[in-house]
Every structure is written in C-alpha cells, then in structure tokens.
Design goal:
Blueprint (H helix, E strand, L loop, with lengths): L2 H13 L5 E4 L8 E4 L7 E5 L4 H4 L2 E5 L2 E4 L15 E2 L4 E5 L3 H6 L3 E4 L2 H5 L3 E6 L2 E5 L3 E9 L16 E7 L5 E6 L13 E5 L1 E6 L5 E7 L7 E3 L3 E8 L3 E5 L7 E3 L5 E7 L6 E4 L8 E11 L5 E6 L5 E6 L5 E8 L5 E6 L5 E11 L7 H8 L8 E5 L8 H21 L1
Helix pairs in contact: 5-6
Bound molecules: 2-acetamido-2-deoxy-beta-D-glucopyranose (NAG) (6 copies).
InterPro entries: Glycoprotein
Protein name: CUB-like domain-containing protein
Keywords: Membrane, Signal, Transmembrane, Transmembrane helix
C-alpha cells in the first residue's frame, strides 16, 4: 500500500509552507468537516464577524482535539484585544447551519503564523464599532480585521467592510505604512503592497532620469481615510502612533482637503463612482503634488487619475487591465486644484490612490530645464497624457522618470502663463 507513505509525507511538506490565511464563513456547507492545510502549531486564530451568535454557535472549530464554537471567541478580552484561539494541532471546521443561513454570513477566520503569534510587536484588532488604537513602540505590525459595515447610506459604491481612520497622532520620526491584505509569512520583506505612507520619500531624478536623492515629506494633516477593505495592516518603525478606527462610511465623492499641506486616500474594491478631491492652494508659494497609486484593473476600460489646474494644466494617468501598476509614485510641481478619479466602468477593479500636496520647492528649477523646455514653449495645451504599459513593479521607476520630465515641461509652461 503506497497510500500511507504518501500521506505521511504531507505534514512535512506543509511544515515548510505555513502561510497565514483567511477563511470566509459563507464557504462551508452543512454537515461536512473541512480540514485546513498548512496551519501552524502555535499560530493564532481570530474571528472577525458581525454575524449573529445564534448562527456562530453552530460553527465548530476543532484543533488539538478541542472543539470550540465560534460564538465563544466572538468578542474582546481586555479592552479591545480580540479573543483568539491558539492552534494546537491542525484546524478543522464543521457547521450545522443550513445553506440559507451560511450564505448570509459575512464573517471570516484569520490565522497567523506561529512567528506572528509569538511576536509582541504584532497586534490584531477586530473592528466592530469605534476604537482608539496605539501601535506598539519601535517596530510594529497591526492587523485590522473589518466586519460588515452597518450604514444608512444609499450610495451604491459604499464598501461592504471598512475602516474610517481619523485623528492620527504620529511623530515625524515614525515611518508608517498601510498595506492591503494580511501579513504574509515573509511580511517584513514585502514592500510592494503599501497603499499609504507617512512620511513619503519622494525620489528626485535629474533630467537624465538618474536618482540623485530623496526628500522626506511628512504630513501632520492626514485627511480622514476611508479604507473599504476586508482587512489591511499597518507597519511602523519609530515612536508609537495613535489613531481612531471606526466601522463607518462617510460619503466623499466630492471632498475638499482641510489644509494646504495634506494627504489623503481613495480606495476602491468593487463598485466605483467618480471621486473628486479639491485642494486648498497658496498661490504665493510653489507647490508639489502627487499620487501613490496601485491599480488592478479588470477590464479594458481605463481608470483615470487627473491632476488639474484651474488654468487648464493637467496630468493624466490611465490604467486598464493591460497597464496595471503597483506602488507608482508620481510627483509633480503644479498648482493642481483638483484630483479627479473616474472610469467608464462601474466595476473597474481594485485601486488605491494616496494623494498629497504641500507648498515649497522640491527640485530647484535649473537653467538646463528652461533650455530644454523652451523648445516646446509654443505648445498650446498644457496637457500630458501618460498611458503606462507594463505590469512589473520594476517599471515604477521609469514611469516616474518619464513623468518627471513631462512634469518639468508642464511646470515651465505654467511659469510662462
Ligand atoms: C435554515 O435554518 C433556519 C434557522 O434554523 C430556519 O429558520 C430555516 O427554515 C432553515 N431553512 C431551510 C431551507 O432549511
Ligand atoms: C527577510 O529579509 C531579511 C534581510 O533583510 C532576511 O534576513 C530574512 O531571511 C528574510 N525573511 C524572509 C522570510 O524572506
Ligand atoms: C514572500 O513569500 C511569497 C510566497 O508566500 C512570495 O511569492 C514572495 O515573493 C515573497 N516575497 C519576498 C519579498 O520575499
Ligand atoms: C536633494 O538635492 C537638492 C539639490 O541638490 C537639495 O537642494 C536638497 O536639499 C537635497 N535633499 C536632500 C534630502 O538631501
Ligand atoms: C473624468 O474626468 C475628467 C476630468 O474632469 C473628464 O475630462 C472626463 O470626461 C471624465 N471621464 C469620465 C468617463 O467620466
Ligand atoms: C507645508 O510644508 C512645507 C514643506 O514641508 C513647509 O515649508 C510649509 O511651511 C508648510 N506649510 C504649512 C502651511 O504648513
């Protein structure tokens, strides 16, 4: 019988591949027992659910011979520390809810790795109403598990689950990054899934496209951030950061920043309608604006990001399924009064756009720029359309280079006007 040696090998293979995971409660049909592979001994399991305890009670988790019904881990221990279950030998799930009930469940299970479970700087929060959080000091990872949004809003593009983040209290010495998804086993090495950063490190390129240094832009004014994702996580490096998280939706199709120096965020995960951000401006000073974009379009329809000036100056970034981008940072020098993000599709795909603007010079305008630009100074329209045609993250840099050059031209034309 070759059966036994084969199955005996499986745990060994699994051992090297323990990955954190998420299991949606609406996926499991009544009566059967599902066993999850690759769950590590010592890992922690969390429940993120707004579902009725009378339904959660019918779902059993089996680990190390112990049976736990989900209603008993649907809550908090001290303060806002969510209850959790330590995995002590495999993980199985069994439900006696019928499929009608199972289909309406919105909650999910989240399993870490053992390393994450043992790490005192690794925290997990389950967001149900409103809670103040403080990240652990120095290096930290904070996972936010959203639960189903309860809202009166009639907006068709409202998220199903969301965190509304306000009152961020952060030292300029702390690097803080927001990431989509949940932390992978190698999460400290994954740096491409960041959709919001404060401070931003803006790379400065010369006109040959060579990186010569970077400027740190810290924002003490962060607009309220609507993060319409099932889950996401924060990493920090530096003194602790405090903030308020709420499971709340605030309609923001037309939004005006609350300060001249400001950063904010537009996230889409499902149905999308046009968003506009109006920037407060100070025309007596030069201005740097930009976007940090990751886009995963699912159709040929473009998702377009316009930075527009009142005088008609405009920079457009277009992405469709042939042209997605991860972590693309665009920096431009213009008095953009508005950011518009729109698409011809109502299901354009997932995207993340951090926007920012601040007064003051970033790159000194050298005489070389003026000479280069003067050759096109007769161009009538101050408009640049950039269609990015690559999917690799390594392309990010060249996009920025191209944009830096076009931006320099636009900037010069603006000066002429
Ligand atoms: C499913 O379970 C619920 C709650 O126990 C019950 O009200 C409902 O009638 C059941 N539906 C079916 C199709 O069995
Ligand atoms: C992450 O990178 C560090 C070096 O920066 C390395 O020592 C470590 O093994 C890497 N971890 C994983 C899980 O890839
Ligand atoms: C992290 O692990 C995943 C597989 O789980 C792999 O695809 C990815 O390349 C790794 N990233 C880094 C930066 O090591
Ligand atoms: C980057 O270089 C510019 C021009 O040389 C300089 O003005 C600026 O201070 C430098 N910034 C940093 C952070 O070194
Ligand atoms: C998107 O907004 C831009 C800038 O306001 C506008 O020119 C364009 O027509 C809009 N496109 C769609 C599809 O609504
Ligand atoms: C905006 O930021 C710039 C660069 O950090 C700074 O020089 C300027 O004073 C700030 N303006 C306001 C109104 O805070």
């Amino acid at each position: 019988m070759t059966w036994f040696p084969l199955t005996a090998l499986l745990p060994l293979i699994a051992f090297g591949n323990c990955d954190p995971n998420i299991f949606q409660l609406n996926k499991y049909s009544t009566g059967s027992t599902v066993t999850f592979d690759y769950v590590e001994h010592g890992a922690k399991l969390y429940l993120a659910s707004n579902d009725d305890n009378s339904f959660l009670k019918n779902i059993e988790i089996i680990s190390g011979g112990t049976i736990t019904t989900l209603d008993t881990i649907n809550g908090y221990t001290a303060g806002y520390t969510p209850m959790s279950l330590t995995i002590t030998g495999g993980l199985s799930l069994r439900t006696t809810n019928n499929d009608t009930i199972t289909n309406v469940l919105t909650g999910y299970l989240y399993v870490t790795t053992k390393e994450q479970a043992d790490d005192p700087s690794f925290a997990v929060y389950v967001l149900k109403n409103r809670q103040a959080i403080t990240t652990p000091d120095k290096k930290s990872t904070v996972v936010i598990l959203n639960t189903e949004l309860v809202t009166d809003s009639t907006d068709i593009d409202k998220p199903l689950k969301t965190s509304y983040v306000t009152a961020i209290n952060q030292s300029p010495d702390t690097n803080m990054r927001f990431h989509w998804g949940f932390p992978a086993a190698n999460w400290t090495n994954v740096t491409i899934n960041q959709f919001f950063e404060n401070p931003l490190y803006i790379e400065n390129y010369d006109y040959d496209g060579k990186l010569y240094n970077s400027t740190k832009a810290f924002f003490d004014n962060v607009e309220p951030l609507q993060i319409g994702l099932d889950c996401w996580y924060i990493t920090t490096d530096g003194p602790a950061v405090a903030m308020i998280l709420e499971s709340k939706y605030v309609s923001n199709h037309v939004y005006t920043t609350t300060a001249v120096n400001a950063t904010g965020l537009i996230v889409n995960s499902l149905i999308y309608k046009q968003h506009e951000v109006n920037f407060l401006l100070d025309y007596t000073r030069t201005r740097t604006v930009g976007t940090l974009i990751s886009v995963f379009p699912i159709s040929d329809d473009y998702i377009s990001f316009y930075l527009s000036e009142n005088n008609g100056g405009q920079i457009v970034q277009n992405y469709n399924k042939k042209t997605n981008i991860k972590h693309g940072l665009l920096t431009t020098y213009m008095q953009a009064s508005k950011l518009t993000i729109n698409s011809t599709s109502i299901f354009p795909g997932v995207f993340y756009c951090q926007y920012y603007g601040f007064t003051g010079d970033l790159i000194p305008v050298t005489s070389t720029v003026v000479q280069t630009s003067s050759t096109i100074s007769s161009t009538s329209a101050v408009s640049t359309s950039t269609v990015v045609t690559t999917t690799k993250s390594s392309s990010t840099q060249s996009i920025i280079q191209i944009l830096c050059i076009t931006v320099a031209l636009v900037f010069f034309l603006i000066i002429l006007i």
